[in-house]
From TrEMBL, chains A, B:
It comes from the Bacteria. This is LacI family DNA-binding transcriptional regulator. The keyword Lipid metabolism does not apply. Residues 10-65 form the HTH lacI-type domain. Keywords: DNA-binding, Transcription, Transcription regulation. It comes from Actinomadura montaniterrae.
Length: 349, 349
DNA sequence: GCGAAGCTGTGTATCGTTACACATATGTCG
DNA sequence: CGACATATGTGTAACGATACACAGCTTCGC
């Protein structure tokens, strides 16, 4: 109890002194126990106990070792919604699995869309980054590239020097779109936001190439191909853009779509959450799925099975894990993930 | 381009040298731009650009500054489920809000239930901790206390030296239990796990005091009081223990409850997810809510409104934020959060 | 015209730890 | 019994950055 009164941080040197050994012996007692005798180790541990030493300081250790044993995760301006979006949550869970297994921490970076986001990336004490799908022009991407640490982007965009993990969204959209639009005359699409301002609108004639979010862009392109495959001109396809990936928002916009003089008879959404909103709106309007309106979702979430949604299955959890492994340098940093079509009862046979 | 070829980390000293200024001027250029002349700052920034300097090293900075500007979050053995539990997700979102606002990072610690969890806490480069509800005997708690940094526990247990944020679970359970059990003859409870082994069972006569998870314990105590208030002996109340906070699990156990010779006519759950499972099971058994079985949930999640669940409203998001503020030392570290009763149609009027 | 006050720039010490190389003691083997 | 491997302990020098205190120079009021 002697010198434990001063509230300043206790250092390894003080522990070593009290234990009557050198600093290195004390350090080894923590980091390579087999390197010191049992007797010395217990002297050190006793002294540490007496002084209330909390163990080697993590910052000092990281500095000296050159590694923080922590992975950074960038969720885009999304941050506070990230935890509410089930797909994002699965993705995070996949990263968490890998980090937990390797003993790595997982730092979620406080990105808010403000100007100092770049600083937040630069200042993060992490060994590598995983970036959740964002827009082509997201300034955070250049910040991530600038720090020159291993980094992997999920979904896109593709950035020179950074890894990329994701599925072939265009091919998957074309495939699920084929089921959605089969036999339809007036297909529609319920889409994620097209630009960073994230506004909800209903339009036609969008050029997918103009869309800044690569995942959304590729899916729109796939839906366009699917429409054309079904003999329908893309300019005749209505696109309802949802500000958020959200059941309520999709329901609201679908209700609006259905009031049109020639309402859609097939709606391809970009997530199962959205598709659930679409189904609710269709039914609320007194129409049947798929009789009056065929509906497709994306992700094969729990709600898809409940509602019998035809959807695209992909494991965001596996993809999160793949991103983490790549950002840790364990695997190559480019990775095409698997997807598959899950036909259910929300589309016509 | 001269010396940028070597792949070793570029240091501030090298930047300063190339810029022809002192190291401190270079440091100020990054940290206190107003402290140096524009000319000097741009010389430094140019030199940094040329050398590919990624900015001051975060570990070195943390060491020198004595602060990491990062908050640690401990989710218990829960980790990989944490992101799938909507309540936990709201809580995390609340922490994220505060961290983002303050420019703090948020490190999720890789706790797995294994023996080295304590080390993970000790080695985390964070300024403070927020601990998500855990059991009285969770060894992580002593590790958190041992590091002597500000820490707040959400829900419980109460640990000397650590802050505590949460609602009065016992009072809330007694209140919502009163609605659930009003006029009932054979009430039942659908509960969270009672011990760390997390097994699903159906039993009676549990002594709430034996339960290791404080939140679960207090809610059970509240339900017991509610049952006794309604003139029913606690030993007659069946308790279905769910291994996980999960709709499917609650549905499965409720289905089992309903096959009993004298099935329950009122079921109080511990979350809206569970209550949703209860409602599904009741309806699947061809019985009515609340006519045949009254049901209550907890948390006032979106599903509660959809199903008309009587529930306890609390904002996990606000509580997460409160924990973060306390762990950052901005507010006192004990905090009784608000809750309120939300009567809906799943209980008898 | 002169002291006070502000603006910029600089050296040095230090944050707490671990890598490395070396010193000493102990054990092993022909 | 000498040589050589194996265990254990130690001192010193980084790791990369920032706090602090001070020095030179400009500006300003009176």
């Amino acid at each position: 109890m002697e010198s434990s009164a001063d509230s300043k941080r206790v250092t390894l040197a003080q522990v070593a002194e009290l234990a009557g050994v050198s600093v290195m012996t004390a350090s080894y007692a923590y980091n390579r126990p087999e390197r010191v005798s049992d007797r010395a180790r217990s002297k050190v541990l006793d002294a540490a106990e007496r002084l209330g030493y909390a163990g080697p300081d993590p910052s000092a250790r990281s500095l000296r070792r050159g590694s923080t044993r922590t992975l950074g995760v960038v969720m885009g301006e999304h941050l506070s919604y990230a935890f509410e979006d089930p797909e994002a949550a699965s993705f995070l869970a996949g990263i968490a699995d890998v980090c937990a297994d390797r003993g790595y921490g997982m730092t979620i970076l406080p990105i808010t869309g403000a100007a100092d986001d770049g600083r937040r990336v630069t200042e993060a004490a992490v060994d590598g980054f995983v970036v959740w799908t964002t827009s082509d022009d997201d300034p955070v991407l250049s910040a991530v590239r600038a720090v020159k640490r291993p980094a992997v982007v999920h979904g896109g965009p593709e950035v020179a020097g950074l890894g990329l993990v994701g599925i072939d969204n265009r091919a998957a959209a074309r495939a699920v779109g084929a089921l959605a639009f089969a036999g339809a005359e007036r297909p529609a699409v319920v889409s994620f936001p097209l630009s960073r301002d994230r506004i909800s609108t209903i339009t036609t004639g969008i050029d997918p190439a103009d869309v800044l979010f690569p995942v959304t862009r590729e899916r729109l392109e796939g839906y366009r191909l699917a429409a054309e495959d079904a003999g329908i001109a893309w300019r005749d396809v209505t696109v309802a853009v949802c500000a958020r990936n959200d059941t309520a928002e999709a329901e609201r916009l679908t209700a609006a779509l259905l009031t049109a003089p020639e309402p859609p008879d097939a709606i391809a959404a970009m997530s199962d959450q959205q598709a659930a909103g679409v189904v609710h709106a269709v039914r609320a309007a007194g129409r049947a799925v798929p009789g009056d309106v065929a509906v497709t979702g994306w992700d094969d979430a729990a709600v898809a099975e409940q509602l019998g949604l035809t959807t695209v299955a992909q494991s965001l959890r596996d993809q999160g894990a793949a991103c983490a492994r790549a950002a840790l340098g364990e695997t190559p940093d480019a990775h095409a993930a698997e997807w598959s079509l899950v036909p259910r009862t929300s589309t016509r046979p």
